[in-house]
Please model this.
Amino acid sequence: MNSRHIHSFGSPLVGSLRLGVWLWAFAWLVLLRSAESENSRSAPRRLLYVATPGIRDYLEYGGHGILVFDIDRGHRFLKRLPSAGLDEKGKPLNVKGIAANAGTQRLYVSTIKTLMSFDLVSGRLLWEKAYQGGCDRMALAPDGKVLYLPSLEQAHWHVIDAFSGEVIKKLVPDSGAHNTVYSVDGKHAFLAGLKSPLLRMTETAGHTIIREVGPFGAAIRPFTVNGAGTRCYVNVNNLLGFEIGDLESGKTLGRVEVQGYAKGPTKRHGCPSHGIGLTPDEKELWLTDAANSRLHLFDATVMPPKQVASIPLRDQPGWITFSIDGQYAYPSTGDVIETKTRRILTGLRDEKGGGVQSEKMLEIDFAGDQPSRNGDQFGVGQVRR
Model:
């Protein structure tokens, strides 16, 4: 009798307790899912922006537009942003350069005729402008306010207001304007032309040329500088290797030739080494070798840098840059290399599975939908003085 009495009163109590436990668990599950969703929205996303098409030989790769890849998900293709940069027949013009600034939320892409400005949040094209003499590989100031825009292998560079696209000043070193690098501190810009063995250095407060570095052994092709703004490493015509310059004195410091490999025919650029970059920590210098479809790595902690390794690639490289933290190296062949192990992890592929190649790429990170930091198309050292 007593047991039946207890049982009759205990069942509702147990049921209530079970219901309470289930409700408590459900509430926690909802909160956890909500927190996970919020974290996924606010967690930093590392994205690789790749502008296409590049030089004419690259037209078979990647199509037209700006391709975005998710770095932390195996460099998986994420989306394609529509671009302008078309000629009078509606065909895409060759892309010459890419730059971005997370603070101003702007992305810039140059073609042989025009410069385009995009909103990084929406991906919308804000403006496209043509400039006298065309456009080449530009450089953006670290604060995102000014662009140095070379003409297409002509006599001059335009200094551009990065917000409006208006010309601030015109510099005329008459060197066959081509590649341009901004110093990490924003105080200097470096101008290299296809027709000159001299690297020009500007003072950006007044946008005036203050020094010439060189002469180097031949006309300058791609080049890079260290974070302190004291050294430059330059590719020159006919050299499988690089030369070194002192940015403070203007003198050349030496010439380094790749050992164990011979020069040969190249598909693009007509230059044995067309691409050079310092890892962000400046411990290594990576150099392209077109004819042998390789990257050659040098220990940059010694002078002159010492050759230490070579990495075979899927095609002839014509450029090299790095992720912001230096975890990955990006040659123009679309190979994705882990710098620590020197292993090729994957290759960039578009939405159709096609291989993507481009010399114009950089990392942009986002916190939620807001850009938080940006890399650069050049392998510029990041170690300050």
The chain has two domains: 1-42, 132-374.
